[in-house]
Design brief:
By secondary structure, the chain is of the alpha/beta class. It has helices at 7-13, 18-23, 25-38, 57-69, 105-117, 128-137, 154-167, 174-192, 202-210, 225-239, 263-266, 281-294, 311-332, 341-351, and strands at residues 49-53, 77-80, 93-99, 120-125, 141-143, 214-220, 244-248, 269-275, 300-305.
């Protein structure tokens, strides 16, 4: 088994600098805010709804925006993971077309539809076809640095949108929250980073718990739901392993019933409860009761509570733990966390037609 306390060994398995990218998230978030504030995006006279169209790591920023804004913004935020836009999209819709590479075919198709429907458009990308199209069409382009895996670029793919909405006067207090987030991320980096030994490192400990088991991550609607989804995706892409997620209170109306058979499979599950101080009180109680129901049937249960004052810091306190955990799980399996060969193959096959 890989020794998680051997930083040299971990770096040797990491061909793309994924651990380095994780360690740089604090600086990334600060830079992302400045990029968003400096973006030449004209304010709109009226916005009735916001759509973030993107896929994979380029869509998770939209989910973060949706959760962050639902109690702060007077218009709905919808995340679109498709070739086509919702039927309501029109002249009073603000579309963030987000593709880190700039070459995501679903996003490019949705971008063209947004142009046809007369939507207000902002392209958020590091380059590629999306940047070229937007520049030719006179659409504002928020360009972020390239060279990262999209899933390691959540700061660049989320925070510029917050900064733009703040500059429009639609959000307030973003600057202070980003500053707190950057400070907190430095603390989390020290706790979860390569040099912190296993006995003091929650991310390394959780990766060991996940090894040879199937993580099941549960969040709460309106707070940690996007984090649960993020953890699942990170285990998939980084560790190349299965993981599943769901949300309270919905899972109490279906998934919780499925913890009786087959017993041998249930004993391979490791369940994580993600908690936040803003969880609905009834949801908090549901988590307690649900743990009582399932904890003797599964391999183990971990509860993680967010830390920090602002919502950005609290969300990322959980996201960052999941990111580091999934990367450590990859190396425990002897896998390079960076490359995603299956996705590359799929894109190559799609490009043939």
């Amino acid at each position: 088994m890989v020794n998680l306390n051997d930083a040299g060994c971990l770096k040797a398995l990491d061909s793309t600098g994924f651990f380095e990218a994780l360690a740089g998230l604090s600086e990334q978030c600060l830079k992302a805010y400045e990029i968003g504030r400096k973006a030449a995006v004209p304010a709109l006279p009226e916005v009735q709804n916001i759509v973030v169209t993107g896929l994979g790591g380029s869509a998770i920023g939209g989910d973060l925006l949706r959760v962050y804004c639902q109690e702060r913004l007077g218009v709905p935020v919808v995340v679109n993971r498709d070739y086509t836009l919702p039927a309501f999209a029109g002249a009073k819709t603000l579309i963030f077309a987000v593709s880190y590479s700039g070459n995501t075919e679903e996003t490019l198709n949705a971008y063209q539809q947004a142009r046809e429907e007369g939507c207000a458009l902002v392209a958020l990308t590091s380059g590629g076809k999306l940047q070229a199209l937007a520049a030719a069409d006179g659409v504002p382009v928020v360009q972020v640095p390239s060279g990262l895996a999209p899933r390691a670029a959540t700061g660049y793919l989320f925070i510029p949108m917050l900064a733009i909405l703040e500059s429009f006067g639609m959000l307030a207090g973003v600057a202070g929250e980003v500053a707190e987030l950057a400070r907190e991320l430095e603390t989390y980096r020290a706790a979860y980073g390569l040099e912190t030994p296993e006995e003091k490192n929650p991310a390394k400990q959780l990766a060991l718990a996940f090894k040879d088991r199937i993580p099941v991550v549960w969040g709460a609607s309106g707070t940690t739901e996007v984090v649960a989804q993020r953890w699942k995706g990170q285990v998939n892409e980084n560790a190349k392993a299965p993981a599943y997620w769901n949300v309270f209170p919905e899972l109490n109306h279906n998934e919780v019933v499925g913890f009786e058979k087959p017993e041998e499979l249930l004993r391979q599950l490791w369940v994580v409860f993600l908690r936040d101080r803003e969880d609905h009180p009834r949801v908090s109680y549901r988590m307690e009761v649900t743990r009582q129901i399932i904890e003797k049937k599964v391999a183990g249960v971990t509860e993680v509570t967010s830390t920090g004052a602002g919502m950005l810091a609290r969300l990322y306190s959980l996201i960052y733990l999941g990111d580091w955990t999934s990367a450590y799980l990859a190396v425990l399996y002897g896998i390079d966390p960076g490359p995603v060969k299956v996705i590359d193959y799929l894109k190559g096959e799609l490009a043939k037609r």
